[in-house]
Amino acid sequence: MEFLNNFKAVEAKYNSIKPVVSKNHTLDQDIRPIGERRYKWQRIKKLSDNCYAFLDGYTYGDDVFRPWWFDAKDPDHDIIPTPRETYALAPIIWERVVGRNEAGDRITNEVLKIRNGTGDRAHNTRYCFLEDFLPRSIGFDRQHGKQVVYVWTDKRVREKFFLPKSDYCGATAYDSNEHIRRECIRTDDNKQIILIREVGTEYWCNIGSVFTPKKKRSKVDVEAKAELKPYIDDFWDWACAIGVVLPVDDGAYVREHMNLLFDHGVLNSYSLSNSWNGHEVKKILKTVAAGGSESPKAFSLLVCFLSDTEIKEATSPEDLKNLRAKFNRFINRSCGLVDEWVEPVDKVIR
Length: 350
What we know:
Oligomer: single chain
Structural class: alpha+beta
Number of domains: 2
């Protein structure tokens, strides 16, 4: 953890670091680790005399430690971002900007830009990086799957700002790969927090957009579930009857049954999370009568459900209640009974 609390400290830190030079890295790459040298991909990059980027490595925007799916040995798949893209996509940017105050006097400000990762998934490396290398006056936290930044502002209070994930990957990456084009956008969506303060002062002012988290909503199709209720009840009784004797804690055993479901189009990927073909699962459920089923697909479906439970440790009515709740969530998800949507939100421009 390295607290660099102002632009002057960042500039001094950069100048104090000896660049990493080896058979893999040249002096021209100017790799200067911000912390321990063994974590060389976590580094300070000088973009100009008045601008420094903190890079966490192996993400869009890094011109040396590029994402793992970029291939430096293949010119067609080695994607080097432009300096402008590095500036836009870096987790942390420190800038020194000369301006004037309300009285017209010439002043020097420092600007701090903070950016989340690209893509709607967890960016745990980015989160740890922000926790470690933001200044002391700014805190980073994860709350219920959302990322927030706490800032001591010019209002003399500690304000909380939601830090959204970006969809921007840079035009260089976007133009080079069809897979990237399906997941990212070419133009900057400016999903970042921008803070400013006069050099020598303590408090920040947010001069960028203030974002609101998306509100995710879901609803179970109760009518469709009611039609399946007899089959669901039979499946539950079957699970309780034989679940304790199945080796569902054996990974190889579970993978064998996952492969069977994948081969028959019941699973869309080798994952039990949101990858079910609901139509096929419903057909399988209807083959389960009281006492169980002789269908291999039904048995594999049972194994996949039980592999995500602790049925062998269920010894009390409370344990059974929790197991039933997990079963209900499994049925809702695997049968495609959940309708999910995101309520639109607006961002506030300051």
